[in-house]
Amino acid sequence: MEIIDKKKLKADAHGLKPVVLIGHAGLTDAVLAEIEAALAYHELIKVKIRAEREERKQMTEMMVQRTGSALIQTIGQMTVLYKRNPNK
What we know:
The chain is of the alpha+beta class. The protein has a 4-stranded mixed β-sheet with strand order 1-2-4-3, sandwiched between helices. The chain is 42% helix and 23% strand. The two termini are 17 Å apart.
């Protein structure tokens, strides 16, 4: 298991724009596939979740579980995820 430097990743994520937006349709399989593709390409991504706090928390937990990514931080509607791409 690799050690993740969350402090550095938070700093790296600061300037990023969200690459995935989750709207009223919620966390669908298509959205999860898009998150997977974005993680494979970028490794570190921001996801904007437009939902109530508890729903955002549940979606974030599901994203982390289904994609195998690490949760770096959550601020309001923004969630930052990281998944190392061994092929990069």
